[in-house]
Model the fold of this input.
Amino acid sequence: MITGEVPATRPFSFAESLWFLDRGLDDCMHRVTGDVARKLIAVKGKPVLIEIGKGTDGIATSVLSGQVESAHPIVEYVAEWLDTGRDIRPFYKLLKTDTELACLADSFRGLHMVGIPDLFETLVWCVIGQQINLPFAYRVKRVLVEKYGSSIRHAGVDYHLFPSPDTLANVAVENFRELQLTTRKAEYIRNIATLFVAGRLSRQALAKHRDEEKMMHALMEVRGIGEWTANYALMKCMRAMNRLPVGDAGVNIALNRLKGFPKKNNRKEIEALFSRFEGWKTYLVYYLWRSLREKSAG
DNA sequence: TCCCAGGGGCATC
DNA sequence: GATGCCCATGGG
Done:
């Protein structure tokens, strides 16, 4: 069996990564059982089932199914996915300068951001999740993926790859409607898929902009991608470090709880706070989201 | 019943 | 640029 170790820059908590992957939500793109997670990924276009668990000094990975020549692409994938290489100590230094937020560095010590390496999946997921609650959004995603994504079965469990742009570009709006997607969302998804097929939208092309604001602009030209979604995509997929999804409900609630900010019309307070987190705004958002689900917070 | 949920587009002024 | 409305499901 091919195995590998993904080095992690400390502080790093695999338990936090695992907690996020589970969260009590039913994410069809991976499976968490006990202290490991399994996920089907594409390596050179072929499905490979990997398992990740706590390693001696990072994350232990192994290939359960599929053909790969070495652990190298697997290790690369996991490092990108779980942001293991990030040194978050500077972020903690900034957190410690804020009386009410200092606790985040202790409560969630070693939490690195779990990303979505695939841009197409990220954008489609955003569209699905727009303006609906998360459990429902995950259900819709599961039906979409089970219907249109390729999968393999291992030990009696199905693992899925996200549907390809080519597949979703050819799904009729009425078939999307059967998945409880609105007509408008169906159109957005079809359009995004078509742009990917045509090569007019890709992670690689987007990355060439380098500048976060230029990437924002490029994404927001696409129908269905507004400011919030563009921010989210840059955070989760492009690893942009200075994003603040304006108007995000989670950020508002978290800062209301932690710092007593108003729940609405709080732009001034929030921008002032985030201006002190230059280079780490994305991570601050992520830690605020994390704080929402701490114990009694539900 | 009402309001909100990890929004976005569009018309209108 | 700000505001209001539409979309359209499910949870509290």
